[in-house]
Write a structure and sequence with these properties.
The structure is a homodimer.
Chain A lengths: L2 H30 L4 E7 L5 H10 L6 E5 L5 H4 L5 H4 L8 E5 L2 H10 L5 H20 L3 E8 L2 H13 L9 H8 L1 H14 L7 E5 L3 H22 L32 H25 L3 E7 L5 H9 L7 E5 L5 H4 L5 H4 L8 E5 L8 H5 L4 H20 L3 E8 L2 H13 L9 H8 L1 H15 L6 E5 L3 H27 L1
Helix pairs in contact in A: 1-10, 5-6, 5-9, 6-16, 7-8, 8-9, 11-20, 12-20
Chain lengths: 494, 494
């Protein structure tokens, strides 16, 4: 080493040490400010992602970060939408999450291997962009790194790995294939970055041939992003607590529901019985054809959600369905994006998830009680539509039920519950308080039904003053939708 | 149906309804009393486990239970000890967990298929018994159900399933094989129940040919167990807060450590460098041979745990290791068995988990601060040995390090931290308070080292007044243990 090189090396070492101290300090600041940080590493095989991640994490307190690795989906993940494994691992407030290869990896592999067509690709990029927007809108500091090395360097590294018994297994046939078609793969990567570079989620390309230089660039990129986010921290969000301005949602879809619809007991029993048996058979078919099903239930207190769900599930095999009740979020849930806890219950392909109250809490109770800002709930309509679209893109049947009763019927049911010792526990002071906000809820529900009933994931308004009628309508709707999808899928499978 | 049959059927229906009401009420009581309930369903194929579980859960509020199904381990689970997937899903305080086939299933399958030898079987039953004892000692209400049907009835049900397109796929070749060798399988099951029937974890055999009778028996068994546990609820546990009686652990292993051991800087650097490079290669070998590694670090505050761990990991591939720091338990952790949160970080085969503070908190800080009862921490020595033995039975390398410094050295380091602005955050009032309890900690540590240093999972006392010496000793010990295990495994693989 010449004197000059020695000096350069010393300088670089000092810079690296400084960058690490800076990162340690910023980690503590982000923890205090409750900022979640998400760092993704993508790039060429043998570019040294593992090594660079290890250097980066040496700067952090291990109590504050998680590293998730793996460039392919596991068994559990293959059965869910491709963004699922990232969504459920997104960082909580104040924590850092590092992904060794991100949501881009699978898309790029499928593209290189020509497994994904134009339509799949378009859907995947749209899903990714919506996901990144949701994360960053939710306050996540997102750093996307892309590590590059030249074709020649890659070949050299593959050969070095192959030369040693302990590391030879790391180089796969596919790795060599991508090296041989380096230019083609490079083009795919460039295009991908162009299509997904956004101000809120920019790409940083890192030349990873020289390890120390790359490490310094990575550390500084991460530190800059954390610092910028800390500086930009908005003043305490303004909660929405004023009166709802009178607008066109006061009289909407709900007012038009025909609540006189009913069903005599005999007919109810016969039809219910037939529908339940049919549903049990369809459930087997769903499993066989690997179709995931998401059913959301919303409605007034005492509108009969629980009863409808029990009729829906009473003949199902518990191995294939799950009822997911939604209560107030716990601490861990509160520390994440509001959609996170629902991502955690997204069913595997072939399974049914039934949500007793749903992510629509954002635009109902959270809106009305001021648990989120107006900006946040207004943004939620689109976010929810995007999430449901992603589920449908992954092959899911998505249905949402609004169980509707009128105010008099609710009062009758509340009083019934009070009189029945086995049901008293079902009624709380909060139910009575919510009742007083009926008009504001009605307005919010009207707006929600209008803005989030999509072709992919429609709302079904269930006239619920007659429990018999409501239960049969729910079951019938589910049976029809499943039959339709099963036929489609069988036709597609040929 | 004769008049008599009609009457019987009516009576049965009334009994079932009553049992369901009773279960609903007991669920609410167990939630209030924070009792966790674990119900397992095992038994013959086509005995109707799914149907019976579905009937049982109709009685429960869905906010309070989870059903876990699957009679085989998934990808993630195959790479971990066979009790892992059950340990991490054990119920939190006040919740009900239902397993559709339990920890017995795999053992029984392996036995039927002659995959497990005598020794494996003996280990498996010992592991299971220890696990059930730990659960129930920890307050879990454990109900083990075994559903039986006759050979003839099973054949009938298989044929019925096969007759319909929607359900034919449910009957596998192995199912038929077990039906053909019904007697052999029955004997295995009987023996299994005999060997694992304990007062704290009794088996209940349910004749499942008649569905309503079986449902009633299951519901009443579960309800009786819940009721008995509620009745037996001990008065508030007596916390241990008296002075520690002088005993033989006051002067023990720690006093014998030679804290003058040290290493000059030059030798430290050379040996550290060589060891780190060697460890990186061994890490690849571990992965290739699918050997899991569990390293636990305990020691006095400022003894250098963090520094030793950083030297250990600095050359490792982050895809293959994880540092798991142990802070005060959060709400979810507090609602589970004290070992639960460590089960959640048990590494996959081929991966290294490094615990910065460990499950030994139970017999140190929890003992000394009175966070658990004396009965609980005294029981913990055996529980911990059993858990570690289970890991070793599953092929893991388990090492525990006690980083030891004397009281003067600790004071020097505390003062150093106070003076260094980059390190001030590392020192808290609690550190000073713990220091005042040095003698009580020393006693607890001596007892712990003596009672939990086993052949399978030894403690390594690291003389830590010299950081250089300590780091090299840690790395050397890890490298030696890994080399030894790798050789063993390669010899075994042939």
């Amino acid at each position: 080493m010449s004197e000059k090189e020695k000096k350069q090396s010393m300088e670089q070492k000092a810079k690296l040490e400084q960058a690490m101290l800076r990162l340690g300090l910023l980690q503590r600041k982000c923890r205090e400010a409750k900022l979640p940080v998400l760092i993704t590493f993508d790039g060429y095989d043998a570019a040294g992602k593992g090594l660079q991640i290890n250097r980066l994490i040496q700067a952090f307190d291990p109590r504050g970060f998680d590293v998730y690795t793996g460039d392919r989906d596991g068994e559990e993940e293959l059965l869910r939408p491709f963004l699922w494994r990232f969504a459920v691992k997104a960082p909580a407030a104040g924590r850092i999450v590092i992904f060794d290869t991100s949501w881009y990896r699978k898309v790029q592999m499928d593209r290189f291997d020509k497994k994904a067509g134009k339509k799949e690709l378009k859907n995947a990029f749209a899903d990714i962009l919506a996901f990144e927007k949701q994360l960053t809108d939710g306050g996540v500091v997102l750093v996307k790194l892309f590590l590059t090395i030249s074709e020649k360097e890659q070949r050299k590294r593959f050969k070095a790995l192959e030369a040693s018994k302990e590391t030879a297994w790391r180089v796969s046939e596919n790795d060599w294939k991508r090296n041989e078609q380096y230019e083609k793969y490079e083009k795919i990567n460039q295009k991908m970055r162009e299509q997904t570079d956004r101000p809120y989620a920019p790409w940083t390309v890192v030349d990873a041939e020289k390890k120390n230089e790359a490490a310094l660039k990575i550390m500084n990129t991460v530190a800059d992003a954390m610092e910028a986010a800390l500086a930009a921290e908005a003043p305490a969000a303004q909660l929405f607590d004023g009166p709802v301005p009178p607008d066109r949602y006061q009289k909407g879809i709900l007012a038009k529901a025909d609540l006189s619809l009913s069903l005599p007991q005999k007919e109810y029993k016969d039809r219910l019985d037939a529908l339940q048996k049919k549903l049990a058979l369809l459930h087997s078919e769903l499993y066989r054809l690997r179709i995931p099903v998401v059913l959301g239930f919303e409605g007034w207190d005492a509108a009969g959600k629980g009863g409808a769900i029990r009729r829906l599930t009473s003949h199902l095999d518990p191995r294939g369905y799950k009822v997911c009740p939604t209560a107030s979020p716990n601490d861990e849930e509160r520390a994440h994006h509001y959609l996170w806890r629902f991502w955690n219950n997204i069913p595997k392909a072939g399974h049914i998830a039934i949500f007793d109250r749903t992510w629509y809490g954002r635009v109902m109770v959270e809106r009305i009680e001021g648990f989120c800002t107006e900006t946040e709930w207004r943004r939620a309509y689109q976010e929810i539509n995007e999430m449901e679209q992603h589920l449908v893109n992954a092959g899911a049947v998505v249905l949402k039920f609004w169980l509707h009763i009128d105010k008099d019927e609710q009062e009758r049911r509340f009083n019934d519950r009070l009189k029945n010792p086995d049901k008293q526990w079902k009624i709380t002071d909060e139910d009575w308080r919510n009742r007083e906000k009926w008009d504001r809820y009605e307005e919010a529900v009207n707006e929600m039904l209008e803005k989030t009933s999509t072709k992919a994931a429609p709302w079904v308004l269930v006239e619920g003053n007659s429990k018999y009628y409501a239960r049969v309508k729910v079951l019938e709707t589910v049976v029809d939708a499943l039959e339709k999808r099963i036929k489609q899928k069988e036709a597609k499978n040929g």
